[in-house]
Amino acid sequence: MEVRVPITVGDIVEALSALGGEAHLAQITEAVRKIATPPLPPSTENVIRGRLQEHSSDAQSFKGKRDLFRSVHGVAARRGIWALREDELQPKNLDAMYDDAEPSAFEGALKLRQHLRRERSKKLVSDFKAQLEDFRCSVCKFDFEAKYGKIGAGFIEAHHIIPVAMIEPGVATKLSDLVAVCSNCHRMLHRDGLITWVELQSLLQTSTSDP
């Protein structure tokens, strides 16, 4: 019998940190899938939503534990954008987060609509990379293959010019809505979610030209 490993609060904190401290639930879910210990429950997004609310005083289901997360627009708005509370980013609080391995309740089944949306997103990114002729970062021109050799060939990340959290329901994302960036620039773009890749490119050029 396959034993599913609970998604810990530490997994969610690490995922949100990697996303710049604030992200949509769908983005958090994808980031958790990359770092959490498999096998994960099929209802991963529902589990993460539950854990966010359990550890947020913004939610009715807050259990009075560590108040780690905040709902950016309020839980009632159902916008799905969550952020780390700033004081919880301090090192003194991080160790305790990663010790939290209490069992999760696998609430709710994964809806087909959600599954199809996730697969479509992956295909879009795959199609975007497949049509690239230049795998250098659009911002800083970093080339993974030039730096790492064969293992870096064809590696690049796809950044949504319009943040996923801001895309209106029913609006399709096109290949032209994505831009190729390296991992470092991607992290910088998501650090505050307000700077565009062109602005970051300009900022980088100004920074490197300063004496």
Fold and architecture overview:
This protein folds into 2 domains: 9-97; 115-209. 41% of the residues lie in helices and 9% in strands. It is built from 8 helices and 5 strands; from the N terminus they run αβααββαααββαα. The protein has helices at residues 9-18, 25-35, 44-54, 91-97, 112-130, 144-148, 183-192, 197-209; strands at 22-24, 69-71, 81-84, 157-160, 178-181. Strands 1-3-2 form a 3-stranded antiparallel beta sheet. The radius of gyration is 19 Å and the shape is globular. Mean pLDDT is 78; it is low at 87-120.
The H/E string reads: HEHHEEHHHEEHH
- CA(first)-CA(last) distance: 62 Å
Provide mean pLDDT, rounded: 78
Report the strand count. 5
How can the largest sheet be summarized?
3 strands, antiparallel
Radius of gyration: 19 Å
Helix content: 40-55%
What's the number of domains? Answer: 2
Poorly predicted runs of 5 or more residues: 87-120
- The general outline is globular
| Residue share in β-strands | 5-15%
Strand order of the main beta sheet, please? 1-3-2
Class per helix and strand makeup: mainly alpha
Tally of contiguous helical segments: 8
Organism: Sphingomonas astaxanthinifaciens DSM 22298
InterPro entries: HNH, HNH_nuc
Protein name: HNH domain-containing protein
Pfam family, one: HNH
